[in-house]
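DM from R.C. (forwarded with permission)

"hey, sorry to bug you on a friday — could you get me a structure for this? deadline for the figure draft is monday and I only need the backbone to look sensible"
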Amino acid sequence: MNTSRFHRSGWVALAALLLAMHGHASAQVAEREGAQEWIRLYEPHADDDMPYRLMRPYGFDATQRYPVIVSLHGGAGRGTDNRMQLRVWNRLLADEATRAAYPSYVLAPQSPRLWDAAHLERIKEIVATLPSVDMDRIYILGHSMGGHGTFILLQIDPGYFAAAAPSAGTGRPDTEEFIDASLIKDVPIWAFHGDQDMVAPYDRGQKLFAEMERLGGNMKLTTWSGDAHSVSAKMISGGDNGTTRCSSDRCDGEPEMLEWLFSQSRADGQ
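My reply, with the result:
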């Protein structure tokens, strides 16, 4: 037996294996980096009161005016690391085709606690510093704690926002009622909820919608049949098991969420 030839072939095989493993690992790293590329679109801003990320409008043109989407994270995004507040809907909003079709700012603040009036004041301060903002088209959306926060901030200053899209935002089972429909009935709202949600009870969403119907409010409610709490991706992308109802003939019947959102303006009157 030629042991030297055996050793040479063994080393060749080992080298080939190591190269293949290195190539596979490099491909995995490249895939991970590619998957995270959208995060870099959200510039981090340190802030003593409220850290935030900001995605600027696609193809920014200083002669144009751009809307702002205020994106409120849910409980999973709580903290001060200025990263975890970027959720699945932020990734969907960062899609290049979506950004090109709907150029806008996306402001994603982060908080370790429930959203409140102090957050709203800081959000207003940040928006006021952004160049070329269309102040008649400030939108707010969020899921779970962020949906809850959407309703909270709407009630604090309903005249500031042109439209709102809360997802699973009716609070936890152990929280008291917190939504006064009379304060927000004139703001275009499109709410989303899974009918099996036990975290933010779906029956509260139904109760709010019924009150909006009584008041002739401007609210749409999309119910995802068979879904529980995790419906935040559908807020942007939609789905085939949703049923949408309108509280009055004031509602814009547009079936595509982003098309509906970006068509809302305070200039049209509420």
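R.C.: lifesaver. DSSP finds nine helices and nine strands in the chain.
me: no worries. The radius of gyration is 23 Å.
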